[in-house]
Sequence to fold (342 residues):
Amino acid sequence: MKNKLEKLRDDFLESLQKINDLPALRELELKYLSRKGELNGLLGELKDLSLEMRREAGELANVIKQELQERFNEVKTEIEKKEESAAYLDPTVPGEKITTGSLHPLTLLRRELEEFFATLGFMVMDGPELESEFYNFEALNVPPHHPARDMQDTFYVDLKNKQGEYDLTMRTQTSNTQVRAMRKYGVPLKVIMPGRVFRSEATDARHEHTFYQLEGVMVGKNINFAQMKSVLEAVGKKLYGPETKFRMRPKFYPFVEPGSNGEYTCFLCQGKGCHVCKYSGWLEILGCGLIHPDVLRAGGVDPEQYSGFAFGFGLNRLAMLKYGINDIRLFNAGDLRFLQQF
Ligand code: DAH
Fold:
């Protein structure tokens, strides 16, 4: 009897495995599990056994019956689920659109400039956003209490440095990395340092507390103003086309001597004058100059032997002009309608 029951179970499970539609399943149910099915047939035979064997076989029969019913139900649910979803499959429904992200306009611009400067032999360096006052100001020839500090509305940070002093700020300029670069790599040096900077600004369409700059430094023997001009001119042609002209006008920055601003002919009107350049024909894009001897010294470079130039671009301003963006706050707003355009 035991053998018969086990064989029935094995046969049942084997057939069940091969089934994948409801009619076949129904057939199997009839054959084994229905009132007139094989299992009940076997149970009917129990009454011919001795009491002892009847009990034993009865127990086994119950266990098997339950097992078969459970396995049967499982397979049934599976098949029903499959058939249900297949019934709803409508091949004419348009596919689900897979949306891909896009790069931020500032990232696009930064990468374009990094690639360009790489062709001129500049390497790329990252600087810290949380910075000591030393690298952000002192090393750049702006001692404490010097009025030049007022030019930048600084976020001072309520944190002590390793020496226990309140000396940290959010960097106001990527110039903070100039002296770090000189100390780390020495001369000759050609490096750009793009990154995020912070100022305590009241925001409006043209002012942001968090924005991006791209700093550059070249130090070596006999580095001069003419070389600086040719590099910056080349950047302008790369950004705005081969007709672009570059000009400089004196401007004070504590870490360069002489210092200058840098302007390109307006890419929109080619210098004729339009609303983008406020009818001047020129766009002010950068600051630059020959590195002040004090700054070279802070970087461990002997100003008697070496000279260098430095420049700093405002990346947000560049991107606004390049892509026609009219509000600087859009860069940090995280609005997909804006970002998906790039
Ligand atoms: N750090 C300056 C600013 O944020 C920009 C600048 C001016 C950078 C002159 C330079 C430079 O490297 O030589 O306004």
